[in-house]
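Quick one, tokens below:
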């Protein structure tokens, strides 16, 4: 693997991947590359494939570009590698073929996700959940780590979480024990996206998830909202369905190596 020190090192290489027939799961943009290079970004080129590895401490997150008839290989690493192959229905066959190639190298599928979308709609604003503050960083970081897998839970980096809190993109509930629920989200020009939603085990069944969702939709003015929910997680699927989130045709498979 080759470590990338600045974007100029890979800009031409990335532009060369933008061709018909190239399969990719890489959706990084300019500012994303700046953050990832600072955290640690590596590339591996081999046989018509470009693999990008993002540093996550105890593991690496991989994205890729696969040209037709690519012959895949992996660089040596003693850490787990995780990649998520997301696509629309029309690209499902091509992405399934890519998954087969990675599984032949030792990856295995660990879960699937289905994207759900809620159309823009006004939402009641009465809720016990409140926007989190930057001072809540330690509590929220610990809460997310306790409720989501370090490998497959898409946890934010420390810098990303601090930026998220500074922008008001997390809502929480609290009780006498501390943080009882967290909804962490991202905002783009076209929509907002729920990244993480969890309620502490001893507080479930009290409607806190609904309170968090209400606060989130209030903060975002009921804008178009999306969420990637684990396929087959019946309680989560029922919750989102109940609140207007419908499958929109995008699915993903999460693969893990090591």
């Amino acid at each position: 693997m080759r470590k990338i020190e600045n974007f100029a090192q890979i800009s031409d290489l990335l532009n060369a991947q933008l061709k018909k027939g190239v399969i990719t799961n890489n959706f990084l943009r300019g500012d994303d590359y700046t953050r990832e290079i600072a955290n640690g970004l590596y590339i591996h080129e081999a046989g018509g494939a470009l693999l990008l590895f993002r540093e996550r401490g105890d593991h690496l997150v991989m994205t890729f570009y696969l040209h037709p008839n690519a012959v895949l290989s992996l660089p040596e690493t003693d850490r787990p590698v995780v990649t998520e192959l997301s696509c629309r229905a029309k690209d499902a066959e091509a992405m399934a073929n890519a998954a087969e190639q990675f599984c032949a190298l030792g990856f295995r599928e660990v879960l699937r996700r289905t994207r759900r979308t809620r159309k823009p709609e006004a939402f009641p604003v009465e809720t016990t959940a409140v926007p989190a503050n930057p001072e809540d960083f330690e509590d929220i970081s610990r809460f997310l780590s306790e409720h989501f897998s370090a490998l497959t839970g898409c946890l934010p980096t420390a810098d990303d979480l601090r930026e998220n809190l500074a922008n008001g993109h997390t809502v929480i509930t609290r009780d006498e024990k501390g943080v009882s629920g967290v909804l962490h989200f991202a905002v783009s020009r076209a929509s907002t996206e729920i990244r993480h939603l969890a309620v502490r085990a001893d507080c479930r069944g009290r409607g806190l998830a609904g309170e968090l969702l209400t606060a989130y939709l209030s903060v975002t003015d009921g804008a178009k909202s999306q969420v990637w929910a684990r396929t087959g997680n019946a309680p989560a699927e029922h919750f989102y369905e109940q609140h207007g989130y419908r499958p929109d045709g995008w699915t993903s498979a999460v693969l893990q190596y090591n």
